[in-house]
Amino acid sequence: MNNIVKILNTELEFDFNDADDMERFEKAYGKAEKLLNEYKTNGKKASEAIRDNCKIIFDCFDEIFGEGASKKIFGEKTNLKSCTIAFEDLIKGKLEQDKEFENEITNIKNKYSPNRAARRSKK
pTM for the complete prediction? Predict the structure, then answer.
């Protein structure tokens, strides 16, 4: 199984099937999603709102992948579009690992299903 998640062309090791990794993802992603949904500009300049929203996403990546991950992914840029794409990449990575696991389970079920065993005994 592939335990690599690609975020903005940066490969990070992460296993969504590992309880500790998944727990970090659930906490950080849930927190970031809540903060982003509740964010109010309250008359702030656009640049401030961009920085605030990017900080939420940077913190999320640091919580999931470890301190410094956001610098590795984003460098010195604070770009809202990049942050949005990175957030999407994170979800894509999870879905890809989920699909790999699902395929693995299906292969195991097919390999050891009672029907297959019955067909083999007839040979």
Answer: 0.83
Q: How many residues does the chain have?
A: 123
DSSP 56-69: HHHHHHHHHH-TTH
Euclidean distance between CA atoms 72 and 107, whole angstroms: 36
Cβ atoms of 70 and 62 within 8 Å: the answer is yes
Judge contact between 68 and 75, C-beta under 8 A: no
CA 7 from centroid of its chain's CA atoms: 9
Q: Give the up-direction half-sphere exposure of residue 36: CA atoms within 13 A in the CB hemisphere.
A: 20
By C-alpha distance, which of 72, 68, 100, 101 is closest to 86? 72
15-71 pLDDT tens trace: 999 999 999 999 999 999 999 999 999 999 999 999 999 999 999 999 999 999 999
Nearest partner of 58 among 40, 41, 45, 75, judged by Cα: 75
